[in-house]
Amino acid sequence: MKKASWILFLIVFLGSCKSEFEGVRQSGDPERIYKKAEEYYDLEEYYKAQSLFELAIPAYRGKELAETLFYKYAYTFYYTGEYILASHYFKNFANTFYNSPKREEMDFMSSYSLYKLSPNYKLDQSYTDKAIEGFQVFVNTYPNSERIEEINGLIDEMRDKQEKKSYEQAYLYYNIGQFQAAVVAFDNFLKDYPGSEMSEEARFLKLKSSFIISENSIYEKQEERYDKTLKYYTDFMKKHPESKWLNEARDIYENSIKELKKFGRV
Question: What is the pLDDT of residues 239-257, one digit of tens each?
């Protein structure tokens, strides 16, 4: 009996809560709506706050309160994990309230929301690219910001992810025997990340891929391709004279020279 009474009480209580929210939402009273929105916001009931802020904002457009309402409205998307919309509304705030003391914060949060969308390096890095671009604009816009050090750390973290993604893509081409694509991908990787810890292996696999391409080319293209392999070998030896792949690299060099002798080359 007690259990049934408790369930009935809970149903009535939840129903009254819903009725209160709906009553405010449908009231058409902007002041009542925004005050209840702020109450829900403070209670961290962000979906309800978001719904009410959305109704209140048009009524206060152009008024002093608009900035506060829009500020909290933008954050409701962030706190509910809707980062694409959060980024949009943070940026919208910064563009709308251009002279606001909160503008710097909103510009930062717009890019930080995109950072939150940056996935594992194995996945598409479009949001990573957008977040880095946004942070770079922020640094240029607010060069004296206290957030610069944090931003530099976030950019480094995302660039590490991009670097790993770029290398893994090149290695995948090599691993599945797409050697021409591997040479191009390793070359792009080395141009984009010249100081990478993986640059030695990337140069070696680029050299090895080029040699395999040369070996499997038709006679008319072999001379040109072995020449290219020797060029990659020279670059590899210059950059990594004590490489752990030194013996294998020299084998590639000697075999390439041997093949070029067939073309009257000494």
Answer: 999 999 999 999 999 999 9
- All domains of the chain, ordered by start, with CATH? 20-80 (no CATH), 83-176 (1.25.40.10), 177-266 (1.25.40.10)
DSSP 8-state class, residue 123: S
191 phi and psi, to 5 degrees?
-70, -40
CA distance 181 to 177: 9
Q: Which range (18-32, 86-100, 128-142, 180-194) has the least confidence?
A: 18-32
Contact 199, 239 (CB under 8 A): yes
pTM of the model: 0.80
Contact yes or no for 196/170 (Cβ under 8 A): no
Q: Helix (H, G, I), strand (E, B), or coil: what is residue 124? A: coil
Q: 247: helix, coil or strand?
A: helix
Q: How far apart are CA 42 and CA 131, in angstroms?
A: 29
Q: How many CB atoms lie within 10 A of CB 117?
A: 16
The rounded Cα 256 to chain-centroid distance in angstroms is 42
**R_g (Cα) of the chain, nearest Å:** 30
- For the CA atoms of 36, 41, 47, 53, the dihedral, rounded to the nearest 10 degrees, stands at 50
Q: How far apart are alpha carbons 119 and 108 in whole angstroms?
A: 19
- CB distance 160 to 179 below 8 Å: no
Could you tell me which residues come within 8 angstroms of residue 55 by beta carbon, excluding any fewer than 6 positions away?
25, 30, 33
